Each structure stands twice: as C-alpha cells, then as structure tokens.
C-alpha cells in the first residue's frame, strides 16, 4: 500500500526552499546597514540554496534595499500596523513598508509580545493586513520556559496558531511563513535540540493544516529561531521539517551570518 504521509512529506520538502531571515532587532544605523552589506555580499557570492531576508529597523529599510539591490536578498520589517493610515502615532502601515521595497514582515515576535503588549489577537490583525497587502509574513510562535517545563509546549503552540490564523483562508495564506521561536532560547545562548524543534514544527504544521487546509500547510515554511549560530546551524538545517532559520544576534555580524547561510 502507498504510504501517503511519506509522499506528502516528500512533496512538502521539495516545495519548501529554505529561508534564512535576519532579525536585527534595534541595532544598526543606515550607515552600519550599508557597511554590513558591503562586507556580507562578497561572502555569500554564488549562494543560491536558500532564500535570504534581512529585517532591519524601519529607518534602515531604504539603505538595506539599496545595498541589497541585485543580490536576490529580500528586505523585511520587524512589525507592521494593521490600519492603512490615520492618527496612530509611531505606527507604520503595509503600504508604507512596500514603498521602501520591503517584501517581508516579522509578526508576533516574542519581544513584541513581552515588552509591547502584543497578543494573539493583534498578531491575527497584523497577519490579515500583511497578507491582504501581498507581503510575506513571518509569524512567530513559541513557549516560555515555564510552559515547556510544565509540559504545555504543544498546547501553547496550538493556541497561538489557532488564534493567529483565525478567519484566514488557505487561498489567502499561500505566502505565510511561520517561525518556531521558543522564548527561552532567544538571545540566551540556549538552543532547542533539532528533535525539540522538529516536534514543535510538526505541531505547528498540523494546526495550520486544520486552519488553512492540508495543501497550503504542507507547502508552508516553518523556520526555527532561538540562538542559531554558525556552530549549530547545520544540525538544525539538515532536518527536513526545519525549513530555515530566523536569526537574531548572530545575524548582526556579516561573517557569522554568512557562515550560517553557508552552513
Ligand atoms: C530572534 O530575534 O528572532 C532570535 C531568534 O534571536 P537570537 O538568534 O539572538 O536568539
């Protein structure tokens, strides 16, 4: 008898080109952004295996887009507001992002949830706006340490996915990328083992399949994020269920990000 799950796995893997995204958080000026690309581009010349995205602070988007022009590297933002325009001091809309050449946007990063009161509901609003605008969203989910220790990781991931994907059709979500980012691994030097990451990715894909349908979920890329470094990138990226990486600290230095890309 044909093993359908194995076939689905194979189809999914063939359709999912790895994506490696840099999250620069609140680091670098436009000049430092240009310096980064001057150093980084020659180090990854000829690289085609993965798609690359760099997500600098808003003020660096122009400089990043100019510097990366012609390299195939996409530029993303670290957040977006769901309204189109209006009296929302400090916020930036999807069309504003697109006007800078930005094509991707991180949504629901744990630092946004932890320090800026973002919730599964606001993640859902941002995600709907980004998909509607044709941006590629990278939606972050992940458990905190107490949740992992209490055996709640799967429940937390299911709840975050269910709410983030609420009322989004599979048709609309074909660009969606998810990132599993265990909060205890972000910026701490602790990394989830490949086995932990794979288990979490399987949960996320199963939940996405319920909301968006099997076909969209099997093609959806799920990145791992949390202290990815040149030393651990390969063991994570060799897992077929890990479709790439979201890299914070180690993406700020051209050499270390280039070694992750070339794992
Ligand atoms: C992140 O900011 O998404 C991240 C994973 O950070 P770090 O790689 O520094 O843990």
Describe the structure.
The protein has 263 residues and is of the alpha/beta class. The protein has a single domain, classed as TIM Barrel, CATH 3.20.20. 45% of the residues lie in helices and 14% in strands. The protein is built from twelve helices and eight strands. Strands 1-2-3-4-5-6-7-8 form an eight-stranded parallel β-barrel, surrounded by five helices. Helix 2 runs parallel beside helix 3. The longest helix has 19 residues. The radius of gyration is 17 Å and the shape is globular. It starts with a helix and ends with a helix. The model has no long low-confidence stretch (mean pLDDT 95). The protein binds phosphoenolpyruvate.
Radius of gyration: 17 Å
Quick one: overall form? globular
Describe the main β-sheet briefly.
8 strands, parallel, barrel
Helical amount among residues, as a percent range? 40-55%
> What is the residue-averaged pLDDT?
95
Task: Detail the topology: elements first, then pairings.
Layout: H1 4-15, E1 19-23, H2 30-43, E2 51-55, H3 61-68, E3 74-77, H4 94-99, E4 104-107, H5 110-115, H6 120-133, E5 136-141, H7 145-149, H8 153-164, E6 177-180, H9 194-212, H10 214-219, E7 221-225, H11 230-237, E8 244-247, H12 254-261
Parallel strand pairs: 1-2, 1-8, 2-3, 3-4, 4-5, 5-6, 6-7, 7-8
Helix pairs in contact: 2-3, 2-12, 6-8, 8-9, 11-12
The structure holds phosphoenolpyruvate.
The site of phosphoenolpyruvate (PEP) has 15 residues, from strand 8.
Primary descriptors:
263 residues; alpha/beta; TIM Barrel; eight-stranded parallel β-barrel; 12 helices; 45% helix; binds phosphoenolpyruvate
């Amino acid at each position: 008898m044909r093993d359908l799950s194995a076939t689905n796995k194979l189809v999914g893997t063939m359709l999912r080109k790895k994506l490696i995204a840099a999250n620069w958080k609140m680091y670098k000026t436009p000049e430092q952004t240009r310096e980064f690309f001057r150093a980084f581009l020659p180090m990854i010349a000829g690289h085609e295996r993965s798609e690359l995205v760099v997500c600098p602070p808003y003020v660096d988007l122009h400089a990043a887009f100019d510097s990366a022009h012609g390299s195939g590297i996409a530029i993303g933002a670290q957040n977006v507001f769901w309204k189109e325009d209006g009296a929302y001091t400090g916020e930036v809309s999807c069309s504003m992002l697109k006007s800078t050449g930005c094509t991707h946007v991180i949504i629901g990063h744990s630092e946004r949830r932890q320090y800026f009161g973002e919730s599964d509901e606001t993640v859902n609003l941002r995600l709907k706006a980004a998909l509607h605008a044709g941006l590629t969203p990278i939606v972050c989910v992940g458990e905190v340490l107490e949740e992992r220790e209490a055996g709640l990781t799967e429940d937390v991931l299911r709840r975050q996915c269910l709410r983030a994907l609420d009322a989004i059709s599979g048709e609309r979500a074909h660009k969606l990328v998810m990132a599993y980012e265990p909060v205890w691994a972000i910026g701490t030097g602790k990394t989830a083992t490949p086995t932990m990451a794979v288990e979490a990715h399987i949960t996320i894909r199963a939940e996405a399949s319920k909301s968006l349908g099997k076909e969209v979920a099997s093609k959806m890329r799920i990145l791992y994020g949390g202290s990815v470094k040149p030393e651990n990138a390969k063991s994570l990226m060799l897992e077929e269920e890990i479709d790439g990486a979201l890299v914070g600290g180690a993406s700020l230095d051209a050499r270390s990000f280039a070694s992750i890309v070339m794992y």
